[in-house]
Amino acid sequence: MTDKPDSSPARVFISCGQTRGSDEYATADAVARRLEELGFDAYVALQEQSLNGLRENIFERLEKSEYFIFVDFKREQLIGPDPPVCRGSLFSHQELALASYLRIPVLAFQEKGVKQDDGILRFLQANATQFTDRHLLPSVIADEVRRLGWDPNWRNELLLERSDPTQHGDARMMAMGAQKTGRFFHIGVRNRHQRMMARSCYIYLEKVTRLEGSVEIPLRAVELKWEGYLLPSAHIPPGTVRPFDAFYIFHDDATRLQFQMFSDSTEFIPHVQGEGRYELRYAVVADNFPTARGTFLLDLRSSLPSTTLTQISGPDHATHINLNE
């Protein structure tokens, strides 16, 4: 497995007001561009008008973000306080509450005149930085990001990766009472987090499709084996790669896949055999990370040295397959 880190940058969720007819849209875009110049993947949250929009855009993006920028623009003046103050953006405060629940690092900024320590800010002790000039806000935010040492070169995710389509390892093993040689093909699981151990990681083969004829092969859920490890679940330290046995092939049976799996029933063994091209999708489930998936193209040949396993989806990989090749 390669030790080269994936190039996808850390994601920053930018939560700020989007009042129509104001300069808030332009300010939010300028903040995003400034963060992208620093190497981050910036996302500006737009106010959603439906529950599906919240789930598919706001909630999903927020859950996957490594950092959170909270910008509280002034709204209407509140009645009663002396001196006068304004309320902040209700929508942004709701997103701030979700970021707090998800334990995402927060940088908070409030326009001068907004009621301080209002809502959840009072409990987060976020020490919001006040600003007066919206045009200068992108530079103010960039300065704070640099001061705190926010790092664009990591993500809160696991990645399935395979850089060499011909990678394999041969091993002698017992099969049907005889010593046989198997060729093992591996896939690496990279923990891209800076500090957090990926705990209790399990591997599953989710889908197998024979591309000639688009025939999907029936599968049952069963745990696969980590390379050189005898238990179904394993931990992955931050910044490291742990390989698993995607499958193996006996030298004297070159067109049939074999699987190392935790089951005492043959009913759970996938039946993948015959020369051809197959699409295999694997998933890694962990206690404290989102589920990671990767899709791979198996070119299975009667000549074992000609068999390859190539990544076709995941970081920096295309997902299009030409069935006529």
Task: Write a short abstract of this structure.
By secondary structure, the chain is of the alpha/beta class. It is built from five helices and 15 strands. Helix content is about 15%, strand content about 30%.
Keywords:
325 residues, alpha/beta, Rossmann fold, Immunoglobulin-like, 2 domains, 6-stranded antiparallel β-sheet, 5-stranded parallel β-sheet, 5 helices, 17% helix, 32% strand, disordered N terminus, disordered C terminus
Topology:
Blueprint: E1 11-16, H1 24-37, E2 41-44, H2 51-64, E3 67-72, H3 90-101, E4 106-111, H4 121-124, E5 129-131, H5 137-148, E6 158-161, E7 169-175, E8 178-191, E9 198-210, E10 215-217, E11 234-236, E12 241-250, E13 276-285, E14 292-300, E15 308-313
Describe it.
Helix 1 (24-37) packs parallel to helix 5 (137-148). The protein is elongated. It has 5 helices and 15 strands. It has 325 residues and is of the alpha/beta class. The chain folds into 2 domains: 11-148, 3-Layer(aba) Sandwich (Rossmann fold), CATH 3.40.50; 158-313, Sandwich (Immunoglobulin-like), CATH 2.60.40.10. The model is unreliable at 1-5 and 316-325 (pLDDT under 50). Strands 9, 10, 11, 13, 14 and 15 form a 6-stranded antiparallel sheet that branches. The chain has a 5-stranded parallel sheet with strand order 2-1-3-4-5, sandwiched between helices. Strands 6, 7, 8 and 12 form a 4-stranded antiparallel sheet that branches. The longest helix has 14 residues, at 24-37. It has helices at residues 24-37, 51-64, 90-101, 121-124, 137-148; strands at 11-16, 41-44, 67-72, 106-111, 129-131, 158-161, 169-175, 178-191, 198-210, 215-217, 234-236, 241-250, 276-285, 292-300, 308-313.
